[in-house]
Amino acid sequence: MPRGQEEAARGFYVGVIGMTEIAKPAALAPRGGAWFSDGGVELHLGVEHEFRPARKAHPGVLVDDLDDLVARLDAAGQSVTWDADFPGFRRIYTNDPFGNRLEFLQPSQYRPGQEDQLSALGLALNILVLWNTQYMDDAINHLRATGREPTDEDLARLSPLQHEHTKMLGTFHFALPAELLAGQRRPLGDLHA
Q1: Alpha-carbon torsion angle 109, 115, 121, 127, nearest 10
Q2: Domain that holds residue 85
Q3: Residues 18 and 82 in one domain
Q4: What is the DSSP letter of 77?
Q5: Single pTM value for the model
Q6: C-beta of residue 1 within 8 angstroms of C-beta of residue 46
Q7: DSSP H helical segments within the chain, as ranges?
Q8: Do 58 and 101 contact (CB within 8 A), yes or no?
Q9: Fewest CB within 10 A of the end CB: N or C in the chain?
Q10: Are residues 102 and 161 in the same domain?
Q11: How confident is the model over 28-42, as pLDDT tens digits?
């Protein structure tokens, strides 16, 4: 950064980007410049006497809300260039007040239209866990009723996420057997068979 431009750096990196200024070590403070931090990123801006902006080499910073950052950059009058050439990420380029190139990225969450699929998958997983939990409870109660107390090791191995008996792919038709419609569960299999 150019000498004497620390306030411009603070205005951009703290005021627009939302980073926090951190103190430079005492031995380095007289050199000028400014340091900023956000999450796991620290940006150290040092003073160059014959300053030339970094227009090609640049940091790539992951952000949680790219749209919010773009809105703040727009409000501050900063130009933003969108780039769709990095699969799996939404990303932009902008420049700091000194012309240094900056890249901000946000991982793509899903393709448009997948929201319904993700909601249905979450519902299916919740149903699977509930159903398996109820059957596990029935099996434990059945063992206890027949005088066979499950060991702590047996109980530790139980998981409602067991899935070998569950098919998630294909087309399904939901015609429930009469016993399930009546609020009952299918009988447990014979443990000795």
Answers
A1: 120
A2: 6-107
A3: yes
A4: T
A5: 0.56
A6: yes
A7: 6-13, 66-75, 115-145, 152-157, 178-181
A8: yes
A9: C
A10: no
A11: 999 999 999 997 788
